[in-house]
TrEMBL record:
InterPro entries: ChyE-like, Class_I_gatase-like, GATASE. NCBIfam families: PRK07567.1. One of its GO terms (cellular component) is cytosol. This is Glutamine amidotransferase. GO terms for molecular function: transferase activity. Keywords: Glutamine amidotransferase. The keyword Mitochondrion does not apply.
Length: 260
């Protein structure tokens, strides 16, 4: 099988490794079937996207709507490189699924407005599919309404002109959208389970997602969550887009040597 590619930007090793493991676990991907590039550590390697079944983008501490002057050099580089990858993904119609940070990245790339209007605190929200979501070959396999984990400072305010909005929640009208037929972005986290989100809030408790004094209350609320349906999205994406022929290009070997 041609592996899937995970583009990651989390500097904390514990969270980064757990994210990688979660994408693999809920995608049903075994050893060697998910390759990772950590863009917060190094520039984008020379990738031949044809060596991969599809591209995944994980969450991030970066916010695309931050004022340009407040962004670190690393964040500005990451945004430039991701924009270049999306140029290639869309031009070649490469399957793409971006989780949380994917909404901001793909949304801005396609001309949408991303700001803090529809940020949501860490927790679970009911996500409801739109008619287009129910008809979508990937999202249509999910329940019409399901609980999912969220926690984000920014979100889509105005969807990109070319976007098909697939899902929303009471506090965030655009929880998922599609560009073309095969490029998806979600505001919610399809890779997270209770253990995963508790680990993230523990690491990010002082990063402005909630009042640190409320940490115990936040964790207790998360432990009562029953958000399990969203992870089926990853398995569905992998099953739909996996390519069982092996990689053909030399770029795949270069990426494997530099990725983990």
């Amino acid at each position: 099988m041609r592996p899937f590619l995970l583009l990651a930007t989390r500097a904390d090793d514990t969270v980064a490794d757990s994210e990688f493991a979660a994408f693999a676990r809920y995608g049903g991907l075994g050893p060697g079937e998910l390759r990772r590039v950590r863009l917060e550590r190094e520039p984008m390697p020379d990738l031949d996207l044809d060596d991969f079944s599809g591209v995944l983008l994980g969450g991030s501490p970066f916010c695309t709507s931050d004022p340009e002057g407040s962004k670190s050099p690393v964040q500005r580089r990451v945004e430039r490189e991701l924009s270049g990858v999306l140029d290639r993904v869309l031009a070649a119609d490469v399957p793409f699924l971006g989780a949380c940070y994917g909404v901001g990245t793909l949304g801005v790339h396609q001309g949408g407005t991303v700001d803090h209007t529809h940020g949501e605190p860490i927790g679970t929200v009911p996500v409801t599919l739109t008619p287009a979501g129910r008809a979508d070959p990937l999202f249509g396999a999910l329940p019409a309404t399901f609980d999912a984990f969220v926690g984000h400072k920014e979100a889509i305010r105005d969807a990109p002109p070319a976007a098909v909005v697939l899902a929303g929640s009471p506090g965030c009208p655009v929880q998922a959208f599609r560009i073309g037929d095969h490029q998806y972005a979600t505001q919610f986290h399809p890779e997270l389970d209770v253990a995963g989100i508790v680990e993230r809030v523990t690491v990010y408790r002082h990063e402005g997602y909630f009042d640190p004094a409320e940490f115990d209350e936040v964790v207790a609320r998360l432990r009562r969550s029953r958000a399990t349906a969203a992870t089926a999205l990853l398995r569905g994406f992998v099953q739909r887009y996996r390519r069982d022929d092996p990689p053909r290009g030399r770029a795949g070997a270069r990426a494997e040597a530099r990725a983990t």
